[in-house]
Amino acid sequence: MKLGDTLFLSIKNLWRRKLRTILTVLGVMIGCCAIVVMLSLGIAMERNFMTQVNQMGDIMQINIYNYNWGGKTPEGKDVPPLDDDMLAYIETIKGVQAVTPVINLNVKMMAGKYVGYVNIIGIKAGMFRLLDIPVIEGRPLEEGDTDHMVVGKYVARNFYNPKATRFRWEPAPEGFNLMEEKLTISWDMNYGEKPVPGMSQPKVKAKPVKVEAVGIVGRSGYSEYDYSVIMPFETVLKYQKEMEKWNKQNGGSNGGGIRGGIIYKSAIAVAAGIGGSNDSDKGYERVIIKAAHINDVVNIIDEIEEIGYMCDSPIQMLESMKQQTAGLRQILLGIGIMSFIIAAIGIANTMYMSIYERTREIGIIKVIGARLKDIRRLFMLEAGWIGVFGGILGVGLSYLLSFLLNKFNVNLGGAEIWTPEGIVKLKSSYIPIWLTAAAFVFAPIASLMAGLLPSRRAMKLSVMKALRQD
Amino acid sequence: MSAIITLDNVYRVYRMGNEKIMAVNGISLEINEGEICCLQGPSGSGKSTLLHLMAGLEKPTKGSITIGKTRIDLLSENQLALFRQKHVGFIFQNYYLIPTLTALENVALPLTFCGVPRKKRLKRAKELLESVGLKDRMRHKPSEMSGGQQQRVSIARAFANNPKVIFADEPTGNLDTTTTYEMMNLMTEMAKTWNQTMVIVTHDLEITTYASRIIKIRDGKIEKIENGRDLNDEKIDA
């Protein structure tokens, strides 16, 4: 018997028992829909976590904070210094794409007639592109840059006119663009201000340094990069040294500030190669690691925490969110699977009924030359069709339900989140393409499995017994 | 004439509780090509069982059955299905048509299982239905036809794949006398035209007048073999 004929005959057989076929198809539809919708809720939840976590920063990045410097690991081991040797070692950990130390420096910046306090972040210029820092104007920081900087989009808000009337605050105007200004920085926090009578002046004047803004950075969410300027690591180190020299010349008291003072010393020491043997040197305050792939992040964190450092990555938040909801998502999936099993039992039941009814017919077609495999195929196909139609309708219903869930905001945990750009609505249900495809494939396969036993039974019916039955 | 069906010492034993029923009790028989052979006997004599054995619908407990050159008692169920597709046609007392298919589709069904393309098999089915006189009933379902018409459809179906042997199990059991004669004339004429061998089971003495040989069965054994009419005679008037 040809496949085309079998297909045709199987549909014809289903159609002659319309009501029962339709009821069974409805069962499959509901089962299929239950699985898809339940999964879509779980998937939406995961995606929402991802959205929320992405607000906190790049999920592929790991920050190492050297809070534990000079301390011991819980096992009592000394924590090794987070120095260049350590960075070189970290770079060899599987999945690490790049590593950069991070240093911070607070300076006073003058831009045209305006001045402002600015936090400089020093990172390796070559790594800038890897850190997922979106440049909205100009260019990113590149290898070979020296006195170049990329400024955060909110940095300009810090600028004001120091020469303005004493009691009137005059901020830089809207649209003030640091890229269009001549920029200089100084360690002297009074740089650019009107001297206040009676306030002591530094003995040695700090010489302003010319810098150039080459790009502007803007993220959608909160990010330290939006409020800071980024410069090449080596340049910032140089500035630090000069600032320290200037501080010493002035008795080490005035003006310039560095976040994490002790650390900056060690950073200089590391950079200058003089502190390597010093016991008190514990290396960089902070290091950023970029992972090559999201699946590597957790492993990298484990390995680094093993050494004794504290790690911080949005992925930790993501993992804990996932863990907290794992139970709920499993229950959802369980409900879906159960509904589908019920639907599959419905298919098997329908097929058995149909075989009882058609026993004599099966006998007849056996007598007139149907082979066993023809009969098996016929009944398998009948079950398969129920799955195909049920699957299609089920996916359709799932999309409808998903749409309604999203529209009426039925949500399992948090309906919206706030970002600097506005409120982002979270989806309650999300059906990815792969889920649709899986439903289309899975429904007929499950139906075929449900049809397996009934069709074997039909195949094994004895001809004479079947014919004698009324 | 050469034998097309050969039975050699065939037994078929049923078990009913502790009792053994010898439905077919050591029958040896040869049926020749082109013969119209009647198996006649009272009900319970084992004539139907004998037919089923010859057609490969049941397996003999003992003995061998050969059709053409094939030992059908040795074939597997799948091989039997293929064998029936190619070489055997059936006509039953209850017609055994598929109720949901039209006359045309019913006749074409054996050809469907053979894998004959749709156009070809429908053409053949049309020709057959015309030759059984159901030209204007082709699109009707069995439930819309009289017993005689249904039996005509079933006859057309039996001839569909042009088999060597046609088995008929009480083909006129449900029909009135006039229709019975019509049916018998039709079947024997068609069989003669295509030089087909026909084995008919009946308890109706009138049918035996169409047969070239009448084999009387009683208690699972051959009681008597009678020669019937010469098949080249004129057909019998109803």
Tell me what you see in this structure.
The complex is a heterodimer of chains A (470) and B (238). Chain A is elongated and about 120 Å long. Chain A is of the alpha+beta class. Chain A has two domains: 203 residues, no CATH class; 259 residues, no CATH class. About 6% of the residues of chain A have low confidence. Chain B has a single domain, classed as P-loop containing nucleotide triphosphate hydrolases (Rossmann fold, 3-Layer(aba) Sandwich), CATH 3.40.50. Helices cover 32% and strands 29% of the residues of chain B. In chain B, the strands form two sheets. Chain B has a six-stranded mixed beta sheet, with helices on both faces. Chains A and B meet through α1, α8, α9 and α11 of A and α2 and α3 of B.
Descriptive terms for the model:
heterodimer; A: 470 residues; alpha+beta; 2 domains; six-stranded mixed beta barrel; two-stranded antiparallel ribbon; 47% helix; B: 238 residues; alpha/beta; Rossmann fold; six-stranded mixed sheet; four-stranded antiparallel sheet; 6 helices; 10 strands; 32% helix
